[in-house]
Design a protein that fits this description.
Blueprint lengths: L3 H14 L3 E4 L1 E3 L6 E4 L5 E6 L6 H18 L3 E6 L5 E3 L2 E5 L3 H13 L10 E3 L3 E6 L7 H14 L2 E4 L10 H11 L2 E5 L5 H12 L4 E5 L8 H4 L3 E3 L5 H15 L1
Parallel strand pairs: 4-5, 5-7, 9-10, 9-11, 11-12, 12-13
Antiparallel strand pairs: 1-3, 2-8, 3-4, 6-7
């Protein structure tokens, strides 16, 4: 399981061999997780696969993302599945290494089944074909920018949002990013902190004639001159629901 794609394939094989009922790449609620598992009792458990190193920072990040996925999908629980590390549980799911995924699912399903009635299952729909590429910093403080604002806004307009997480992803990341930008119907670029990778990706997208929607949580006056004069949506960390509405309006114009 050297890359994130390998890990996703490995998780799918585990689910299939374990005879779990699941759907892959489905839109549920306001998110598009990697897998939606349905337990024998009818509960939905979200699985999101991350090729992350086992560090305290990534553990905290995974717990936060699990909570967000549970909220956005209204599923009974959510798990962030990694290649290695130590399982960390919470009331909404948590972090689990792939090697103990099946046992964790069984235990979690049994716990959920003890309730009198399962949480109402949410409808699943296949992921749309249109794509929005999110060019952005990959620090933990920007996870809600993607999950709550960019991804939810894209889904509301009949598109999926994609980003490449540099943290632990193997392979030729630059080539993968360029391929994703070429395939995208629009680009949302978070210029917060003027990250060099984001500025490079904006330039690449503009050279291809792609529509770029700029957002920023840090002072726009600090941006390089070649992007400073472009229309930029300012937002504040922690107020991503407002950002989502602005992005919905902008994406509606172009996709």
């Amino acid at each position: 399981m050297g890359t994130e794609l390998d890990l996703v394939a490995g998780v799918e094989k585990l689910l299939s061999d374990g005879n779990w009922t699941y759907k892959k790449d489905q839109v549920v609620g306001e998110a598009r997780p990697d897998f939606v598992v349905t337990t024998p009792h009818g509960d939905q458990i979200i699985l999101e696969v991350k090729q992350w190193q086992a560090t305290p920072e990534n553990t905290a990040r995974a717990i936060h993302q699990a909570q967000r996925y549970q909220e956005l999908t209204k599923a009974a629980a959510a798990l962030i599945v990694t290649a290695a590390g130590q399982a960390v549980s919470s009331q909404f799911g948590g972090l689990v290494p792939a090697e103990v995924l099946l046992s964790t699912l069984s235990s979690l399903a049994s716990t959920l089944a003890q309730r009198k009635t399962p949480k109402k299952a949410q409808p699943l729909t296949p992921a749309p074909k249109k794509k929005v590429f999110a060019s952005m910093p990959f620090a933990q403080q920007y996870d809600d920018t993607f999950l709550v604002a960019i991804e939810a806004a894209a889904l509301s307009q009949g598109a999926i949002a994609e980003r490449v997480d540099h943290n632990g992803t193997a392979g030729n990341v630059v080539a993968q990013i360029q391929s994703m930008i070429k395939a995208a119907d629009a680009i949302v670029a978070d210029l917060s902190d003027s990250r060099p990778n984001v500025l490079h990706e904006v330039g690449f997208a503009e050279a291809l004639g792609k529509t770029v929607i700029q957002i920023c949580s840090t002072p726009a006056s600090a941006l390089p001159f070649n992007v400073r004069n472009n229309q930029t949506i300012q937002y504040k960390i922690g107020q991503t629901a407002k950002l989502r509405k602005r992005l919905e309006a902008e994406l509606h114009k172009v996709i």
